[in-house]
Amino acid sequence: MTDAFGFHALQLGLPELDGLRANRMPHRWVASDILQVPESLALPPPMDALISTLPSPEAVSLHCEFDALPFPDASIDLAVLPHALELARDPHHTLREVERVLVPEGRVVIAGFNPASLWGLRQNAGRLRRSLGQGRERDLFLPQAGDFIGYWRLRDWLRLLGFEVELGRFGCWRPPLNSAAWLERFAWMEPIGERWWPVLGALYFVVAVKRVRGMRLVGLVRKERRKPMAAPAVVANRRRNAIELEH
How many domains does the chain contain in total? Predict the structure, then answer.
């Protein structure tokens, strides 16, 4: 998000992937979970070769819990979550924390694995084989911890928190292969998949904006009581009164 306006940007998770490198905000934080990340969360090859391992020199490293961010309310202009919800202990609470620290009209960028893709189907099949005692280590070449969150399911979560989805994109339509050479051979599937089956991409990216609606009065509006108008004064007929006095 190079065109996002603001002063404070935050990235949650995967410090190996520098999602704030192209951002121009003066204050940037890259937060990693305070808990030690096990080896099962490391991205296996060839996925680790697709991301940058050089952190931005302007970003400040931060260790904290994602469901208890050390920022006041409405203090962050941009939040980037590369697979943070999938690896979080409580993705709902993490997303609520992001909504809390974002300023009105602030943006959140979320990247995740698509469970409805070939990569997601292979990951689920590998987990099933391992649960039956027939799996191998190479069956799970995506992060083993956490559950993949579907694209439409994530949109529902964002809508419930008052976000408005501004952009949704999919990517990586190649088959799930461990070899970088074989992945390169199937590069021809990228333009075809983007045109004919875009929702089956292995990755999705969602950009949402935090909307804060105007306040509305709930209930009946108390009406001011009008003071009763004074009764008009009765003016007597002077001529009639004069005749009565003569008699």
Answer: 1
